[in-house]
Write a structure and sequence with these properties.
- By secondary structure, the protein is of the alpha+beta class.
- It has five helices and three strands; from the N terminus they run αβααββαα.
- β2 and β3 form a beta hairpin.
- α1 crosses α4.
- It is elongated and about 65 Å long.
């Protein structure tokens, strides 16, 4: 299934902040988690994730530190800040409004034509 790039872009910030709200992580692990959460239907790339992480860092929503993995390889780990938690809470409210509006539209579309307009 292809998910439109506008939906991917709109959901990217709350997804990343939500993932980091569970604990710090690094790029590849974030990509893997998005894939898991979507049942493999959202395949993000490095080219999409890292600019977002850098923007979130500039906004003060995440911080980063370099850490060495067990293999000795250095990875940049990202952690959510208090500002990021506030942004996530605001996005959650916004998404609830959008999801509710879409749900109402979809329910009205799914009804048989005569009942959709109150005709019985």
């Amino acid at each position: 299934m292809h998910i439109d790039k506008d939906l991917v872009a709109a959901s990217a910030t709350p997804l990343v902040l939500g993932i980091l709200a569970d604990g710090e992580s690094y790029g590849y692990a974030i990509l893997k988690r998005v894939n898991e959460l979507s049942g493999g239907r959202m395949q993000w790339t490095d080219g999409m994730l890292y600019p977002l992480l850098h923007r979130l860092e500039r906004l003060g929503h995440v911080t980063s530190t370099w850490q060495s993995a067990d293999s000795g390889r250095r990875r940049k780990h990202y952690a959510i800040t208090d500002s990021g938690r506030a942004a996530l809470a605001e996005r959650r409210i916004q998404w609830a409004v959008v999801a509710d509006a879409l749900g109402q539209v979809w329910r009205s579309v799914e009804q048989p034509p005569n009942t959709a307009k109150g005709w019985a």
